[in-house]
Amino acid sequence: MNTGKFDAIVIGAGPSGNAAAYTMAKEGLKVLQLERGEYPGSKNVQGAILYANALEQIIPDFRDDAPLERHIIEQRMWMLDDTSYVGMSYRSDDFNEEKPNRYTIIRAPFDRWFSSKVREAGATLLCETTVTELIRTESGRVIGVRTDRDGGVVLADVVVLAEGVNGLVAQRSGLRPELKPDTVALAVKEMHFLPRETIESRFNLRGSEGVVIEAMGTVTGGMSGTAFLYTNQESLSVGIGCLVSDFKTGNAAPYELLERFKTHSSIAPLLQGAEVKEYSAHLIPEGGYRAIPQLYGDGWLIVGDAGQFVNAVHREGSNMAMTTGRVAGELIVQLCRTRSDFSADALGAYQDRLHKTFVMKDLKKYKDIPNFLHGTKHLFGTYPRMMSQAMQTWLRVDGADKREKERQIVGMVRSSRKLTGLLGDAFRLARAWR
Amino acid sequence: MTVRVEDRLFNNRYVVDSGRPHIKVKPHTTPSQALLMLMRICPAHCYDLNDRGQVEVTADGCLECGTCRILCAETGDIEWSYPRGGFGVLFKFG
Q1: A184, A164 Cβ separation under 8 angstroms
Q2: A and B: number of Cβ contacts within 8 A
Q3: ipTM of this complex
Q4: Beta pairing class for A235-243 and A184-193
Q5: Hey, is the C-beta of A280 within 8 angstroms of any chain B C-beta?
Q6: Would the CB atoms of A165 and B66 count as touching at under 8 Å?
Q7: Which of A320, A339, A370, B92 is deepest in the core (most CB within 10 A)?
Q8: Closest CB to A178 among B8, B9, B73
């Protein structure tokens, strides 16, 4: 391996690592990026939705050549019970704009594209290289990494840990604790291929318009979790995820939940005839603000999923990954230029700067949501059933008069959840949402 | 509901690091609750009982999610590392 010292080493070539490496390499820093997969993206899994804004701030003209699937013009939110869904949709022609706001993407090709930009900017990328540990001085300062390549010690002024949700390198180096089962969700996903025209007619789409469906309800069998179906150009991304702590106490296997979702009467017709080409699984950090580990120290910074930067309520993560990577990269460039050291004091500005962005503001706003979701399992059973029964009672025309219908609905609501329980959940949600 | 996860893994691409599994189950006589749980929760169904009633791992189909490591963090039942560079699952889509 070409040793020699680098200005910065970036561990990982996902959205956060690529954002950091690109930002630094573009400004002339000597950057080494290490990726354990055969190619960037080969270890990465996401739904996946790309929020343009975060990437625009790094590569403004990304739309010219990035492998984008469909721009999203419609969002469907479904509350499922076993045979029905109660839904809300928003579709707007306004999303057919010159520079669309949200796209579906497929991560392996997207990450390869992003990585090609990083290399064009001048960074050195080494794939098939797993970082085994950080090299630290006696005082604890990080000065480089050890890899599983022969003689693989590489030194740098600063190391950016963009290693993803598992955060194993940071853990093994004592920079952070192991993840807790109630702060991560396990999601499984399949890629279903269909002809373009079939997708467009099934989902009421023209050209590269896209639809995303987010669903929750009895499909997770009472566990805190959500399912999704995203339209790509010639495929559908279908997945479901639940908190690891809920899998622990539940009785279903992840692929059984996926099967339940795929065979739901509202989903099955959308997938009919598709060819499945991949099955994947991945953890999603969902602990929110309270689960964020120490983000910086002497000679190191943590960005992306490794820092728990995911907004589970809004299904945002890759935008936070790119933003944290960019902010880290910008700070390192500045410290290099001013010939500052990379002490914890200097790198602490990273956290201060994040607090001024939507990343920390949003995570802070929803800091109590994870606890609310853990404590309110009715969201994944009682409430979806109640809503469905109420709708069905209201819509069926069967000779009962409308006052009688109203009485039936109120009676049904009362029998499924005590009024105090309902009000309590509403109150706790309002308080967590504030 | 019976779902054969093996049929799903069949579509995936792997480069198996023969003889160097990245997950090891610590030797035991009677499996802990945490180990038994992995037979159900592992999304690639890598864990199963052998004929002596011990939990074994066959990591060839591992999707590298890390769930088993988190579930066994307290008991220390398993050792989990990233596979050597270039080995393990290689997602075509991800």
Answers
A1: no
A2: 140
A3: 0.97
A4: antiparallel
A5: yes
A6: yes
A7: A320
A8: B73
CB pair distance less than 8 Å for A186 and B41: yes
CB-count burial class (<10 Å; 0-12, 13-18, 19+) for B11? middle
- Its pTM stands at 0.95
Domain covering A6-67+106-177+293-355 in this structure, CATH number? 3.50.50.60
The alpha carbon of residue A424 is apart from the nearest alpha carbon of chain B, in Å, by: 32
The pLDDT tens digits along chain A (434 residues) read 455 799 999 999 999 999 999 999 999 999 999 999 999 999 999 999 999 999 999 999 999 999 999 999 999 999 999 999 999 999 999 999 999 999 999 999 999 999 999 999 999 999 999 999 999 999 999 999 999 988 789 999 999 999 999 999 999 999 999 999 999 999 999 999 999 999 999 999 999 999 999 999 999 988 999 999 999 999 999 999 999 999 999 999 999 999 999 999 999 999 999 999 999 999 999 999 999 999 999 999 999 999 999 999 999 999 999 999 999 999 999 999 998 999 999 999 999 999 999 999 999 999 998 888 777 788 888 899 999 999 999 999 999 999 999 999 999 888 888 878 888 888 888 888 87
CA A179/CA A274 separation, integer angstroms: 36
- Going from the N-terminus, what domains does chain B have, and what CATH number goes with each? 20-89 (3.30.70.20)
**Sequence letter at residue A14:** G
Q: Where in chain A is the domain with CATH 3.30.9.90?
A: 182-285
Can you say whether the dihedral through the CA atoms of A22, A24, A26, A30 is positive or negative? negative
